[in-house]
Amino acid sequence: MRVTHLSLTDFRNYAQVEVSFAPGPNLIVGRNGQGKTNLVEALGFLSTLSSHRVSNTSAMIRAGRDAGIIRARLEYNGREILTEVQINRSGLNRAQVNRSVIKTRELTRFFSSVLFAPEDLALVRGDPSGRRRFLDQLLVLRVPRLAGVLADYDRVLRQRNTLLKSARASGLRTTALGTLEIWDDRLVALGSEIIDERADLVRLLGDPLGAAYEAVAGEDHGPMLVSSLSILGADEDAALESEPLRSGTTGSVSIGPTTGDSFRAALAGLRRKELDRGMTLVGPHRDDLVFVLNSLPAKGYASHGESWSFALALKLASAELLRRDSTTGDPVLILDDVFAELDLSRRRRLAAAVSGFEQVLITAAVLEDVPDGLAAHTIRIHAGAVVDG
User: Fold this and answer.
1) Per UniProt, where does ATP bind (predicted)?
2) 88 is in an annotated binding site
3) Any binding-site annotation on 31?
4) pLDDT reported for residue 253
5) Under a CB-based contact definition with an 8 Å cutoff, are residues 221 and 213 in contact?
6) Is 165 known as a binding-site position?
7) What is d(CA 140, CA 148) in angstroms, rounded to the nearest whole number?
8) What distance in Å separates the CA atoms of residue 302 and residue 293, rounded to the nearest whole number?
């Protein structure tokens, strides 16, 4: 899969821009603040319906405008399609494929990309929500129907939390129990599917993660991913201690008779506490993913270089997994301002690691930061305009 052309209207600092891309590596060069990252952010949004920079989509709309438009022409398996999304400051966003209106959440099934940016260091050092979001975005790229499962789970979770808060405020806890059981059934059904799908994904990422980490770092530090599940007693509110494999965590082993049984038992055991706090305390929305290096949690123990290598390896492993599964070719690999953070040897190793992908988009402030082999097609950006390329 590759992007042949990108068109932006009222997106970030672009009133209007047209950019063509070639197969293989594409280098986007420009000083900081000129709009390099805005181009790849737009493509990342087409793939995941989220930004790697902001949580509020209206921030991507050009100042003073009511909507921004991302339009990309894609090519795979000899087929060309036109995808488009209109991001609205108020109201729902709108999406089209080949000029036909589709549900916005269906857009992700048409374009697959993996983006790595400096913000991804938070995957290692940040809170669990970022790691959950990483897993769920990758799940949807692999199995698009899971977007509906995740959306349904969020809806049920909100409604269940509303009931718990209402019961706490009114004191009618006994009355709420019957209704809670109805919501429990739906929460367990949807949540168990998400937990199982995440567990399978974690297992599949193991081998490509190890290979990618060694390719980037030049050493094998035993990188691992370990699921930490709230239905088995892991507590998101508790600080992570030095032992990554503790009660409530799983590697690739079974977590019990069935995930649903464990989920339902956890809900029953926490019923009183949930009513006291007015919130759902177990489920995939409370789970975490522990990153391990040298048998210790990367968070709190890994150096800056090790953390950077882990985050980058995780994205490269994701891209490798998607290319194995895909019938539409490689995902588009996007590296946003990565090479400036790497020493010369790691730049060369990363260049070698990405050379086999069908299309790679790279942004850099300084041309000399990027190995020559990745600069064959260079696009220069200045003040929200393409000045060369």
Assistant:
1) 30-37
2) no
3) yes
4) 39
5) yes
6) no
7) 9
8) 7
Q: Residues of the chain whose pLDDT is less than 70?
A: 171-176, 236-257, 389
Domain residue ranges of the chain, discontinuous segments joined by +: 2-112+326-388, 142-292
Model pTM above 0.85: yes
142-292 has the same fold as 2-112+326-388 = no
Fold of 2-112+326-388: Rossmann fold (3.40.50)
Q: β-strand 288-293 against 224-228: which pairing, if any?
A: antiparallel
- What digits encode the pLDDT tens for the residues 185-217? 999 999 999 999 999 999 999 999 999 999 999
Convert 119-166 into a string of H (helix), E (strand) and C (coil).
HHHHHHHCCHHHHHHHHHHHHHHHCCCHHHHHHHHHHHHHHHHHHHHH
User: What CATH number does domain 142-292 carry, 1.10.10.10, 1.10.3430.10, 4.10.375.10, 1.20.1050.90?
Assistant: 1.20.1050.90
222 annotated to bind ligand: no
Q: How many residues does the chain have?
A: 389
Q: Which of 241, 220, 335, 221 is nearest to 288 (CA)?
A: 241
Please indicate if the annotation marks 37 as binding a ligand: yes
Q: List CB contacts of 78: < 8 A, sequence separation 6 or more.
A: none
